[in-house]
Amino acid sequence: MTSVNATFGEVAAERRIASAPLSHVSIELGHLYMEDFEAGPERLREQFRRVAPWAGTVRSSWQDRIPGGRARVSTCFLIDDYFSKFSTPAELVPMVLDAAADCDLTIDYIARESACAESDGIELARLVEDRLVNDPPPDTNGSRPPVKESGWLCNGARSPQVGTVQAMGKANRWAPPLQNAKRGHSIFVDVELWDENGGKRTWSCPFLAAVWQLLRLGLLRTDGRLPLRPVMREDAFPDDWESLPAVMQLNPAAAPFSAYTTLSVLSPRFLPVELAVRTILSQVAVDGDVLKQVVARSGGEGIRLEEELVDRISYVFT
Amino acid sequence: MLIFAISDKGGTGRSVTSTNIVYRHALQGNDVCYLDFDFGSPTAGAIFSVGSVARGTTRKGLHDYLLSEVAPEPHRVDVWTESDREGLRTKPPGAGRLVLFPGNEGGGELPAVDEEALRRCVQLFSRLDEEFDLVMVDVSAGRSFTAEMVLQATVRLPSVPFRWLVFHRWTRQHILAADGLVNGADGLLDVGTRFGHDRDKLRDRIRFVRTAVLEPDAAELVGLRDEQRAWLFACDTELRELASRHKVGRTAMLGKIPLDPILQWREQLISDEDVLASKIANAETAAAFDDLAKKIVDDAAWEGL
Amino acid sequence: MLVMGEVHTGLLQNSGEIPESTCRDVLQLLSGERVRVSRRPIVYAVSPDLLTGVDCRLPSASQSRIRGAGTVLSRSSITGGRVVQGSSHTRIERSGSDRRQPWSHYLARPGVVEALGKAKPRDLADGFAEEPSADGLDLGAISARFMDVVQSSPLLDRRAPFKIARTRLRWVAEPGEPAIHFTLHSDQMRTVRLVHTGEFTPAVVDLCEDLALHDWLLTALLVIIERARIGGTPGPEAAAKLAPAVDHLLHLWMPSARVDDLLSPYWESLDRRPGFTRQWQSLVDRVRDQLAVHTLAFLREKSGGGAR
Asked: What GO annotations for molecular function exist for this entry (chain B) (predicted)?
């Protein structure tokens, strides 16, 4: 008898990863606090007027990079409905869209910030928190679990606790905190990820912004599936924020929401927030299979992506 | 099962008794280990006659495991191979493993219970419970951060059975102190309850062991004058009353260890050879250890009071 | 350059074996990631891979101070609802630079530790197989924690049928002429040095975990037989002490069940010498014979008693 080559597969034993449709770049056309909305349409127009030239520059630079100029560029706008709720989607969204249109900007997608915490029963923030792999200070050899201050994340080693370790032993003296991989001197950053009040957790603004970036990069999966897909707009916008989809597609002809790279055009007052976002994102372990998938896709298009995901994110502070 | 050995005061014979109990328990065919949590004075190695760790280990001991930056696997001493006593160096047929975890030479008492040390303590107990039938933890004397730590650790290990042995001598002062350590303000029951133990259930897991007991009818007393013997008898009766008034009486007692001259001179394991061949130890002492080694795991001896 | 790993294996802290569904719940270590389960020829459930960051000395036989930074890949698994493993490994590669890079650089290479400075694969491999230094890379501690996370699950009753030590198997894999060396050190410590043709694949990790599993089974069975003191204790007592082996271990022996075809020659060569399966079979026969003898004695006693 000849030998038989048998194969046996078990569905539950295999891992399948959905792939996300991807643009070349996702441009965020600004981030506003509630008081900006309260200040009325003129404040919005002012913001969009500043953003418009930068968005145009990025769009044309990608068009130059892509053969035939067929760059896929999508724009998005995030509304904060997590820390404070203002007005209703029915009132606010048209005001934002009109102000953008006045500055020749098209908003392709509009998203709710609270969706970065939880949407459709999927706790995206939890998902990302579970994927934090702490940046280890020197002499971290695995013998003890990573030092974690509950709800905080830093880019180095915190000051040691002052005091004695055992009775009649030597006391620890104060020492400065240290940044890992510092260049000469430390820039030590310690970011609050969340706090809890009466058992209710509130995620911090930088943490939700980190989730937002990962969504825009199409790097999150839950059970191998995409955690959320944009929903096409209906004629009227709802009267409460919860009824607004997590990500709503406003322009039927828009390029995909997620992209190889992101650009955010923001006011300089967001600089500290974005430093915190980078601190968080440089410690998020994205699924290896997803990373490979994105690299393969972009490679197929002749685009060399930056290896480190923080390098796929860029900003204009204006 | 975890057994915590504590005493009201120093010098009760807590360490020598608890080491002899684990030794006997190993001879009875169980895998046992002994954790030297007497952090201020980690000298259990001397009792097991392991000279290299007589004053604690110079390698990674329990202090390092609980307190150091890197938490290395704590040093294990296999008593059956590393003891300096010829008679201990071969594992008797049918005996279980007998492993000592020494503290660090020069180590000191815990300064407080910190979360990290507590977490490692829980991890250690949990891992050893996987491996050993009995884990004896020598918690040192009196109220200490060590006692507080293990009380907290056992709250976090709800499915791991544990018991406490409180060692005391048979004197007025020791009886009062033992009662205070368990039932008094900030005693084991108070502190244990504060950290989440059920007071009554915890009480059911605590038993007293009387050490260096001189029975009025003991052979050693044969040479005494009648007056002396009468005085001793009266004293003993009075102590019994005192003990039962203070909940340290017979019902809460797991066993007693007779006074044995050999242990007054040298804290050591009492082997059958010491009793039968060299005859330096009393048969009653070895029998008392053997009995306790059985009783600590005998549920009937631990039924609710 | 080379891959090093350490697998810890032990008895699940539960009175009986646990069903597949409980395995899934116990191994759910990462939200949004499914526990993978295969059911043939034995139920095997494995947690998602998790990363641990390290920046420390790498092992070195020549005691050179070589710093490495990167991530270690770890996972927990349960075989047959009864045996737990915590497994970690990392691939050591030369760094393009002598400086520690920003952390995002290492997270872009999950499961890789980069050696900063001049590292020789042979020196690293020799160093790893020896007793590691206290401040050096400690894969064992990571694997032990991946076992702890299973063992301390509130879904387990912690009433294991017998007490048994965990075993530790430390392995190094290098490319070259195919070879495998399995060394038994102390009671709990084993090392495997494996040379594979071509590129390293995750199948090598599966092989090492499979070896660790079967070595533990063999070790556990030996311990149970030793405790039973066959011939030294009365028959019924010895039989009672052997019973847990029958109830919990004997059906778990399935060498090479999850091993890639390309790597099964490694198992086969170890099965020729020292002959794991041969030893296992002889121990199993011994246990079964003992129980048969005991049963016969019991029956004889019973029938003898009835005739009187």
From this structure: ATP binding; ATP hydrolysis activity; DNA binding
